[in-house]
Amino acid sequence: MNYRDYSYEELENQMRDFGYPKFRTKQFFQWIHQNPIEKMEEITVFSKKMREDLEQKGSLALPVCVDDMQSQLDPTRKFLFQMSDGHIVESVAMFYQHGISLCLSTQVGCKMGCVFCATGKEGFVRNLSPSEILGQVVMIEKILGEKSTNLVMMGSGEPLDNWSAVKTFFELIHHPEGRGMGYRHITLSTAGVVPNIYAMAESGIPVNLSVSLHQPFQEKREELMPIAKRYQLPELMKATKHHQKKTGRRTTFEYTLIEGVNDRIEDAKQLKDILRDQNYHLNLIPINPVDPSFKRPKAVFLRKFQKHLQDAGVMNVTIRRELGTDISAACGQLKQRFVASQEDDNE
Ligand code: SF4
Description:
The protein has 13 helices and 12 strands. By secondary structure, the chain is of the alpha/beta class. The protein has 2 domains: 55 residues, DNA polymerase, domain 1 (Orthogonal Bundle), CATH 1.10.150; 277 residues, TIM Barrel (Alpha-Beta Barrel). The strands form 2 sheets. It has a 10-stranded mixed beta sheet, sandwiched between helices. Helix 1 packs across helix 2 and helix 11 crosses helix 12. Iron/sulfur cluster (SF4) binds next to helix 4.
């Protein structure tokens, strides 16, 4: 077991079972959540005997960075991390005036099968544990020598399909004895796993919610995102409203524009309809095609669709600035390229 998988309370129980007094939990938790340590010997407040004992009973292993790519166009950096069983996930660091945002993975692969996504094409392998999600933050901050200011759960995987581990990760990174990151600095992006939008709203963890909408018409959305068959648009919109009510947070709806697929005037009107009662922000994203049958819209189409939206009365719309497009921007693409290069090397 990795000690960074335990919530504070679980660590306290574990330490009690090992026969250590309560104050040791606080010291241990602070050390492992405020420092990027990997070896028990680095915890200087513990005796040698105690360090050896804890080393024997658990691990502090962190993911290993196997690739670190720097965009030539902007300061964006992408990392590939290898987990202890050899599986690889990707994470991204984006640099803004207000600080550093990290995009984290929550699963190896993904079950959702969105047709425009590289990770979706590779299928599902396994969930990441809380320590593997946290490990991406710890390692990136160690490499950069700087703390991040914001986190987005938008890398490979569907975070609400791994809600239990993601919830523990949120509690760990927010804990006052640990990293102490405010929940308002964290955003979870989902394809629309409705029951866990409710679970998240009820959890008392008020992180921001971002929903991958991409299509305002039910049937067409099902073609892009198979999960839409299970959780249909009216159900999804009801769940996002519930989250807004419970947390006081505005929902961001992500809308990946695909030329000729979802950029028509009817789409803008339908968007207006389904967003009617929502406290929302709409984010337009030009698709970064993994499938050549999807055309990336030119800037002029983006602006045209933005105008359609304004005419239809859809406000709070922004076009997302793209970062790191030269280092495989779309979800899962960086990992695909790395795996392909390893396969080439092995031939
Ligand atoms: S876009 Fe997200 S939810 Fe959809 S397949 Fe890719 S990783 Fe999964």
